[in-house]
TrEMBL record:
Residues 11-22 have a biased composition (Basic and acidic residues). Residues 1-25 are annotated as: Disordered. It comes from Parapontixanthobacter aurantiacus. Keywords: Glutamine amidotransferase, Transferase. One of its GO terms (molecular function) is transferase activity. CDD domains: GATase1_1. GO terms for cellular component: cytosol. This is Type 1 glutamine amidotransferase.
Length: 290
């Protein structure tokens, strides 16, 4: 299969993350996809960059699926980088290629299709999204197939979806974040997205916590940067030993978070569905085949 990963951040965002964990969000996504689908071809696009080649719907239609990464991008802040990112996402919808996004990737799709995104009004979610619950529609949706009644997922975000666009279905939410998973049908395209990060390792979450330690203390989620460091060390340890019952207990998580195969379930479900997703789904009002 041929996949396109779109970085949803700026060159500075990418370099900052490389300096921290060794690769950008798009490079992490590409590595995950290559691991999950050996033999697949994965290209990386950088639509927010001023000097990036333009992507039109015909270019994008050559791919089996498109993936939109997370980033520090705030889609409610008008800037050339944001406008280029939204234009790219509209081209994805126009192409009919199935698409998937996490965190800012969900927010980009929402804004491109006419919905609204805002800064979170309550506390941010950092490290984990707790007690995510599927809606009635989500319980029967293939994106969440195999999830239990409630689950935790890796997360770090300060923005949230305020209003889904027309042609959307809310699939899951939790206390801090109303929209944790959604389907969007717009133009000729169909998008499945989550506010959390099924593509990330626990070590990458640990690095993100350390990177944002000052902000977490300022937000009142930690008493000090030492607290953040201790929490990060637990994530690192669980990354190395996911079956460790003591570590799971200390973090208050189960296999849905600790085990890589379970953590990546939404991404795996999307990849399984791609061959049967109708590229005319929005216009025809069709669900995935089968």
């Amino acid at each position: 299969m041929r996949f396109l990963v779109a970085e949803s951040g700026t060159p500075e965002d990418r370099q900052y993350r490389r300096d921290d964990v060794g690769r950008s969000s798009g490079e992490s996504y590409a590595a995950t996809l290559r691991q999950m689908r050996p033999g697949s071809s994965v290209d990386i696009a950088k639509p927010s960059d001023a000097d990036t080649p333009s992507w039109d719907a015909q270019d994008i239609a050559r791919y089996d699926a498109v993936f939109i990464t997370g980033s520090p991008l705030h889609v409610y802040e008008s800037s050339p980088a944001v406008e280029r990112q939204l234009a790219f996402m509209r081209a994805v919808f126009a192409s009919g290629a199935p698409s998937f996004g996490s965190c800012a990737g969900l927010q980009v799709a929402v804004a491109a299709a006419g919905g609204k995104v805002r800064k979170m009004r309550s506390r941010l979610e950092a490290g984990l999204s707790r007690r995510i619950v599927a809606t009635a529609e989500g319980r029967n949706h293939p994106l969440l197939a195999g999830r239990p009644a409630a689950w935790d997922a890796p997360a770090l975000h300060t923005d949230e979806v305020e209003e889904l666009p027309d042609g959307s279905v809310l699939l899951a939410g939790n206390g801090p974040t109303l929209v944790q998973a959604a389907e969007i049908r717009h133009d000729r395209g169909i998008f499945w997205g989550v506010q959390y990060h099924p593509e990330l390792s626990l070590a990458e979450i640990a690095a993100a916590l350390r990177r944002e330690a000052g902000d977490l203390v300022e937000a009142g989620l930690a008493r000090s940067t030492d607290d953040v460091q201790q929490q990060s060390e637990l994530f690192d340890a669980l990354h190395d030993d996911p079956d460790n019952a003591s570590l799971r207990w200390r973090l208050g998580v189960d296999e849905e978070l600790a085990v890589e195969r379970r953590r990546r379930l939404e991404l795996a479900n999307f990849l399984d569905a791609v061959p049967d997703l109708d590229r005319r789904a929005s216009a025809a009002g069709r669900a995935p085949k089968g």
